[in-house]
Amino acid sequence: MTKEKAKYILREIKSIKRYSMIIAGFDVDLKRIHDEIETLQMPTCPNANTGPAIQNHKDKYTLVNSLLSDEIDYMNEREEFMSLKVKAEHYYVKLKLVCESLDLISFADDFIGGVKENELKTKYGYANPYKKMIDLIMKSEEKRHV
Predict the structure, then answer these.
(1) What does each C-alpha distance from 18 to 66, 79, 91 come to in angstroms?
(2) What pLDDT does 74 receive?
(3) Which residue stretches of the chain have pLDDT < 50?
(4) Among the four 5, 33, 81, 133, which has the fewest Cβ within 10 Å?
């Protein structure tokens, strides 16, 4: 494995939290779209002033179809981020499997969690925590090929 590939894997692992937040945002948007579609499909009474003020069925169907199209687009994008997250989590699991001690697992968790470099140096005694992570990732990929 090249160092570039190891750096890519590290970036992916560090992106798990970001992927989760993006997926949660899609979930909120999908819920909103679902609620809008449901509201549009409810029967309305012109004199009751409840529900959306849509003049005819053609306008209603056009809005619903537009929202359904948006919903499909969001679901597809959400699936893309879900697959990225699953792939990154897979890398993270492989990384943890090569950690021989709880100390190394704790180090990996802290590094991925965003603990500052100086704190990592002090707590774990590594001169270059970034290099140590790259070495662990390279080791995890080498174990896969053995």
Answers:
(1) 29, 15, 16
(2) 96
(3) 146
(4) 5
In order of 18, 78, 112, the CA distances from 105 in angstroms are: 21, 30, 11
- Per-residue confidence (pLDDT) for residue 24, from 0 to 100: 97
Q: Tell me if 110 sits within 8 A of 123, measured CB to CB.
A: yes
Report which residue type is found at 32: R
Closest CA to 8 of 143, 144, 133, 142: 133
- Tell me the H-state helices in the chain: 3-14, 16-41, 57-98, 102-113, 117-124, 129-145
Q: Tell me, what's the pLDDT at 144?
A: 55
Closest to 75 in 3D by CA, of 20, 18, 37, 23: 23
Residues in the chain: 146
Residues 6 or more apart in contact with residue 57 via CB below 8 angstroms? none
Looking at residue 41, what is its pLDDT? 79
